[in-house]
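Q: What changes when heme C is included in the input?
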Amino acid sequence: MFFKKEIEGIFFGIKIVCSTLILLTILTLCIYKGFLQFNFTALPIHDSPVIKDEYDVAFLDDSPKSKWVKYGFELFQNTSNYIGPSVEQLDKVFSGNNLACGNCHLLAGTKPFAASLVGVVNRFPQYRGREHKLGTIQERINGCMERSMNGRMMAIDSDEMIALVSYLKWIGRNASKEGKVFGQGFMEINLPNRAVNLENGMAVYKAQCVLCHGSKGEGIKKSKTNSYKYPPLWGTDSYNNGAGMSRVITAAQFIKGNMPYGVTYESPMLSDGDAYDVSGYINQQKRPIKVNLELDFPDLKRKPVSTPYPPYVDTFSISEHQLGPFQPIIAYYKQKFNLTKKK
Ligand code: HEC
Ligand code: HEC
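A: The predicted holo structure follows.
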């Protein structure tokens, strides 16, 4: 009898402790969620006057041509809903992750220094070092499809390719013939003359990024869809190691001018050193591996210095190509091949 009471007592205790723990977890989750929303400096496309006047597809009519542009815009912004890994019609599955083009090409490809795609169609065909040949706009889009989206190529005459090109043509309709526009590419930064400091990178990540991108870089999905409110920065649903963003210099430049979300090239928040370190930290984490990367850059001299995968035509280690310091590598190419490397 005595034992039974004792055991009942213990169970009662366990129940109390468990309920308290559950309550506490719910409370913490609520606060965390509210905090996220509160902190979110949303910059929806309609907030920008330039975008509203020039690049808002809502102003378009219902002609067949406009419909292609509108579908292209949709695809660009909500890529995974149409061609992502969870789409049921298998021949429509092109991207291997649930990112959207607009997650990196911000404001639907129109934000200066976020790899703006305004005028991009006029900039092609273009010599591409990665393939060592003249490439078309469709091939360039497929480049991002196979790497940034970790997916597979779309046929040139597929609805999706036609729509994306229509949209990109449309946002470039006022660009010059050569397609040169203000804000192409990314902001330049002064590269610190040292290797990435991973410890500082982690500290910057925890202070400035974790709130939206998550402690495992996993991001946060929009409710009821597979696309992201805050996209992942590493892990299985991120860009693969062959993507431009997996190069430390490219990612640092993107981050400097665009992150934490809401900053612009005119109002960056991170120092160049912090952008460099956090970029190194992100790109040291696990992400999908692309096959056949050794076939990239048939002329190896053309390989950007922070390309994270071998082979190289120099004597620097993989680690130095991933984490710097880059000045010695840049100096090497200048001296040996008279090539001025910026990335
Ligand atoms: C993970 C980030 C990321 C995603 C997602 C992404 N891109 Fe890109 N894209 C880049 C980067 C970085 C560059 C510049 C690469 C470089 O400097 O070599 C680029 C370059 C391009 C270019 C060439 C730009 C120029 O000025 O020459 C095109 C076109 C393009 N992307 C289209 C797309 C499309 C379409 C999608 C969606 C299917 C997409 N990208 C998804 C990161 C991304
Ligand atoms: C307030 C939320 C927020 C914070 C804080 C934030 N980001 Fe982002 N980040 C976003 C959003 C939203 C996008 C996608 C933008 C879009 O789709 O318009 C994004 C996109 C990115 C991308 C490109 C897409 C991808 O998934 O690879 C990178 C890289 C990135 N952020 C890095 C960072 C880094 C590094 C920090 C900290 C210095 C940071 N972000 C802080 C919200 C945030």
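Observations recorded in class: Strands lie at 126-128, 133-135, 220-221, 228-230.
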